[in-house]
Amino acid sequence: MFRPLTFVLLLVFLTLTATLAWAFTDEPGKEGSFYSPIIRVVPDKGFILINSGNGILWLKASEAAMPHIATLPVGGLIDVVVVFQGKPNPPVIKLWKLASGESTCPEFDGKQCLPPAKKK
After folding, report:
1. What per-residue confidence (pLDDT) applies to 13?
2. Does 4 sit behind a cis peptide bond, omega within 30 degrees of 0 on the bond before it?
3. Residue 62 lies in a domain
4. Which among 115, 27, 105, 34 has a CA at the least distance from the CA of 70?
5. Long-range contact list for 102-109, CB < 8 A, 24+ apart?
6. pTM
7. How many domains is the chain built from?
C-alpha cells in the first residue's frame, strides 16, 4: 500500500542528510561560497543562519569577523565565502559582500570591514 506521508518524510530525510553531508564536508580547508538571504544572526555566539540552496546552514564567524556580524541585516542578501572545517564543525566565514540590506559593514575582506561604496 502506498503511503504518501511516509514517502514525503523519507524524501525530506534524504534531502536533509545529503545537505548536511555536503555542508559539513570531510575536506578541511576547502572553500565554498553561498549567495543567500540571511535568516538569523546570533552575534553573541558568532553564528549566522543562511539558506544553502538545499537547506539551512549555520556559518561560524572567524575571530576577525565576530565583531562585525551584528551589523548584518536579517533578510539581506549576502555573498559569503566560507572555509569548511570537516565534520562535525560548521563552515567558518572567510569574507562576505552584502548584496542587499543596510549595514555599517557591507563588505568584509577577511580582516576588516571595507567602507560602504559612495553612491553617485
Report:
1. 66
2. no
3. yes
4. 105
5. 102/73, 102/76, 103/71, 103/72, 103/73, 103/76, 104/71, 105/68, 105/71, 105/72, 108/64, 108/65, 108/68
6. 0.73
7. 1
Rounded distance between C-alpha atoms, residue 60 and residue 58, angstroms: 7
**From residue 96, how far is each of 3, 15, 25 by CA, in Å?**
44, 27, 20
SS3 26: coil
**CATH code for the domain in which residue 91 is found:** 2.40.50.140
Q: HEC states along 92-105?
A: EEEEEEECCCCCCC
Report the mean per-residue pLDDT for the chain: 84
Domain carrying residue 18: 4-114
What amino acid is encoded at 36 in this protein? S
Sole residue written with cell 542528510: 17
Band of the pLDDT at 5, cuts 50, 70, 90?
Answer: confident
* CA atoms of 78 and 84, how far apart (whole Å): 18
Which tens digit of pLDDT belongs to each residue from 39-93?
Answer: 999 999 999 999 987 789 999 999 999 999 999 999 999 999 999 998 889 999 9
